[in-house]
């Protein structure tokens, strides 16, 4: 299986290292910004050629991995899918933009390519997918980070992050609203929304919490099946404290599942 990868940050580099250890899988290309080819090749490692456009790839690739964020997704993934090549992405937050979602639906319908969003920093999506079959009445996502983790986001406009001594909520609304107001933190909410009750019906609460040391993601679900709650405390990648280790791991797991003959 020949792969190309979009992005060369901590998530992409971790995934690349793990994938290069797998039998029968080769990362041949990395897509990056103009002028960053040398850095991108070094970050991904192996015999990888850096290009700035998917059209620059002159041989067949079986799959493209996207780990470059929303801007990189919009720059490259539409072209990849239009060429009929499947994509595994960690940037599910782009689906909160209705125009992007409609465009992606049209492209995949016409080309036959499949866009698969990896589960990223959250879990229990198998249970949520199953529960959605019977009908859901409520899905709530609660995200908690220490105050420093919200620096550079809308949270700074709502609360004084530097003076918090107790947990403080700085957003309450829908997954679609959260993705619009917090684009760098949209992927978990979007993944939950797509797996369950939808962008406009999924409730989101975001907290700055000085009592926590890790990013905490919680889901509360009710429906015809009954109810469940899920909580995960996520560690960051050592190379980048803002990058979720589980997000990188979920990208590798998606490749493992594509290779597997027996799937649990």
Describe the structure.
By secondary structure, this protein is α/β, with parallel strands linked by helices. The protein folds into 2 domains: 2-117, Rossmann fold (3-Layer(aba) Sandwich); 125-239, Dihydrodipicolinate Reductase, domain 2. It is built from 9 helices and 13 strands. It has helices at 10-19, 37-44, 70-82, 98-111, 125-134, 155-158, 175-181, 187-195, 245-259, and strands at 2-6, 26-31, 49-51, 63-66, 86-89, 115-117, 136-145, 168-174, 203-208, 215-223, 226-234, 236-237, 240-244. It has a 6-stranded parallel sheet, sandwiched between helices. It has a 5-stranded mixed sheet with strand order 8-9-7-10-11. A two-stranded antiparallel ribbon has the order 12-13. Strand 5, helix 4 (98-111) and strand 6 form a beta-alpha-beta unit. Helix 1 runs parallel beside helix 9, helix 3 (70-82) runs parallel beside helix 4 (98-111) and helix 7 (175-181) runs antiparallel to helix 8 (187-195). The mean pLDDT is 95.
The CATH homologous superfamily of the largest domain:
NAD(P)-binding Rossmann-like Domain
Which spans of ≥5 residues are poorly predicted at pLDDT below 50?
none
**CATH architectural type of the largest domain:** 3-Layer(aba) Sandwich
Number of helices: 9
Find the CATH topology of the largest domain. Rossmann fold
Shape: globular
Quote the beta fraction.
25-35%
Give Rg in angstroms. 19 Å
User: What is the β-strand count?
Assistant: 13
Largest sheet: 6 strands, parallel
CATH class call of the largest domain = Alpha Beta
Distance between the termini: 22 Å
Order of helices and strands: EHEHEEHEHEHEHEHHEEEEEH
Helix content: 25-40%
- Average pLDDT, rounded to a whole number, is 95
Class computed from helices, strands and strand pairing: alpha/beta
Number of domains: 2
Strand order of the largest sheet: 3-2-1-4-5-6
């Amino acid at each position: 299986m020949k792969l190309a990868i979009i992005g060369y940050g901590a998530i992409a580099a971790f995934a690349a290292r793990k994938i290069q250890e797998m039998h029968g899988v080769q990362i041949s290309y990395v897509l990056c910004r103009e002028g960053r080819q040398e850095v991108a090749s070094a970050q991904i490692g192996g015999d990888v050629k850096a290009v700035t456009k998917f059209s620059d790839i002159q041989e067949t690739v079986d799959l493209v991995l996207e780990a470059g964020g929303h801007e990189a997704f919009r720059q490259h993934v539409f072209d990849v899918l239009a060429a009929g090549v499947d994509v595994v992405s960690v940037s599910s937050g782009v689906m909160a933009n209705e125009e992007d979602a409609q465009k992606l639906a049209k492209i995949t319908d016409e080309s036959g390519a499949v866009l698969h969003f990896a589960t990223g920093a959250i879990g229990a999506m198998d249970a949520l997918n199953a529960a959605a079959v019977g009908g859901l009445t409520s899905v709530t996502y609660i995200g908690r980070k220490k105050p420093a983790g919200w620096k550079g986001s809308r949270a700074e406009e709502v609360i004084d992050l530097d003076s918090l001594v107790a947990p403080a909520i700085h957003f309450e609304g829908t997954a679609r609203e959260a993705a619009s107001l917090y684009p760098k933190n949209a992927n978990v909410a979007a993944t939950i929304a797509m797996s369950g009750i939808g962008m406009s019906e999924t409730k989101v609460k975001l907290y700055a919490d000085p009592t926590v040391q890790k990013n905490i993601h919680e889901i509360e679900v009710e429906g015809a099946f009954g109810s469940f709650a899920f909580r995960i405390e996520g560690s960051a990648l050592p190379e980048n404290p803002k990058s979720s280790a589980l997000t990188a791991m979920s990208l590798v797991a998606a490749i493992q599942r594509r290779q597997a003959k027996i799937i649990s």
